[in-house]
Each structure stands twice: as C-alpha cells, then as structure tokens.
Amino acid sequence: MFFRAAKTSGDLISKGISLSKKNNFKEALVCFDKILDTDAKNDTAWFRKGLVLRELGKYEESLACFDKALEIEPNNSDALYNKGLILGKLEKNEEAITHINKALEMQRDNSVSLYYDGEELKKRGKYEEALSFFTKALDSNPKNVRALIAKGYVLDLLGVPPKGVTSFFDKALEIEPTNVDAYLHKGILHNRIRKYEDAIAYLGKALEIEPKNVRALYSMGVTLHYLKKHEESISYCNKALEVDPRHINALCTMVWVLAHQEKHEAALIYCDKAIEIESEYL
Predict the structure, then answer these.
(1) What is the CA radius of gyration of the chain?
(2) 4 phi and psi, to 5 degrees?
(3) Are 121 and 133 in contact (CB under 8 A)?
(4) How far apart are CA 224 and CA 92, in angstroms?
(5) Are 17 and 48 within 8 A, CB to CB?
C-alpha cells in the first residue's frame, strides 16, 4: 500500500494559474499557499507564487520564492530567468544579467525544456502526454537523470511491468549513484511486488543519503509492517511526521499501519489530523 501524491496539488496549481491569468492575484496566492502548507518542496508552487508576487510589485518576496524553487530544483530555468528579471527590478543589474544568461543557456538544452513540460503534465495527471515529453527529453539527452526517473515513475503509473520500469531507475543510478529519488522509487516498486527485503535495502540507501526524506521514511514504515516488524514500522512513520507533521501521505500511512495492527484509537487520532488538513482544501 502506497499513497500517490495528493491530486489536490495539481488541481490547485491549475486553479492558481487560471486565477492569475484573470488578474485575481490574491486568490491565486491562496491556492499556492495551500499547496506549500502541506508540501513545502513543491517547486512549481514556489515558482508560481513568485510570479504572482512579482505582478503585485512585491519584488523581495518574489525573489525569495524563486530562490526556494531553485533550492529545490536548481535546473529550473524559468525560475532562474525570472529571478534575473526581479534582480533587474531591484537594480542589481550585473547579477540580473548573469542569471538571465545562465537561464537562456540552460534553455538551449532542449532536453531540459522537454523535461519541465513533462513535469507540468505529470503534476496535472496527464500521464500519457507527460510520457511523450520525457521520451523526447531522453531522445535529446539520454543522460538526463530527472527525465529517466520521471519516465520510470509515469510508466509505473500506467501499469507497465516492473522490469520495464526499474530499468530507468537503474540507468539513472549508473549516471548519478547517489540519486535519492531513484533509490526511493526502486524501493516502492519492490515493495509492491512483495520483494520486501530488496525494498528495505533500496529505501535504506535513500535514507542513508537523505535521512529526513519523508516519503522514504513512511515507505519504510509500510515495508516493515508487511514484514510484521510492527514497532519498527510505527517508529519510521513517527520519524516521517517529526520531519513534516502535516504531510498527508505520512499521516494516512500512519493510520493504515495502526489500523492494521488493531490500534484503532491511535489510528483515529491521526485520521482526524489528516481530515482536518484535507478540509482546508475544500
């Protein structure tokens, strides 16, 4: 059992973009803030929030948003370009030119641009269209690690057999041996096909590289539950919630683990927390 990324994030991004186009900037900000409240590593939300703040003339706040987007995804050329524009507004002309030139250089790499187009489609649940862009990105640059992982992830969602999926994660790791996402997805995949010991090895590798990776922590909790290591299972779910107490998938995983261990009162507490957070989207 694994929870997919919440569909509400994609819906809210689409709604925020639509509101921005209608110049309803304050309402658009509410959409992006709701996403960031439960998913602080959503670089698209940070980027879109930065664009809205720029339109409102709040250049320092806009700059901070683009910086957050770039901290999460350093190759986001759109964020880099818009950061350059904001630096120009703040009369930091040399820095502005440097950032804009770097962004334009990145955009010349067609593979990067195609990957980001695919990511936008993936976040909106348009998986077959996203797959087409990831494939084109890899045709342009077969060593685009992010496109390899994204293609494997989408193929998994589309029901491709595990062997055809994991090969993309393996290729990514050949190029970038410390890539957390590749190990994470391999772990989740092996859990689903009931190769639990292999799943633990891959998730453990992800956590060795990034000990506070929430998804790897709660995924480890699920795998340990299947191995009937109940205390360890709950411990990993707790660690995930220590990192991010409002993470919906981590909360839902804790509910699932506790319920299956017949700890119903404790499960209800976490269930109420998840419902409270989800209700904020309504």
Answers:
(1) 20
(2) -75, 160
(3) yes
(4) 52
(5) yes
DSSP letters, 175-200, are H-TT-HHHHHHHHHHHHHTT-HHHHH
Q: What angle do CA 69, 74, 79 make, to 5 degrees?
A: 50
Q: Give the whole-angstrom CA distance, residue 242 versus residue 215.
A: 12
Angle between helix axes 145-157 and 180-192 (nearest 10 degrees) is: 20
* CA 103/CA 97 separation, integer angstroms: 10
For residues 259 and 251, the answer to whether their CB atoms sit within 8 Å is: no
CATH entry 3.40.50.720 includes domain 7-107: no
Residue 104 in tokens: 């334009």
Phi, then psi, of 179 in degrees rounded to 5: -80, 115
In terms of Cα–Cα distance, which of 125, 120, 121, 115 is closest to 145?
Answer: 115
Q: At residue 34, what are phi and psi to the nearest 5 degrees?
A: -65, -40
pLDDT in tens, the chain (282 residues): 544 444 456 778 888 888 888 888 999 999 999 889 888 888 889 999 999 999 999 999 999 999 999 999 888 888 999 999 999 989 898 999 999 888 887 766 678 888 988 988 998 889 999 999 999 999 888 989 999 999 999 999 999 998 889 999 999 999 999 999 999 999 999 999 999 999 999 999 999 999 999 999 999 999 998 998 988 999 999 999 999 888 888 888 889 889 988 899 989 998 998 888 877 655
What residue segments make up the domains of the chain, in order of their start?
A: 7-107
Say whether 214 sits in a helix, a strand or coil. Answer: helix
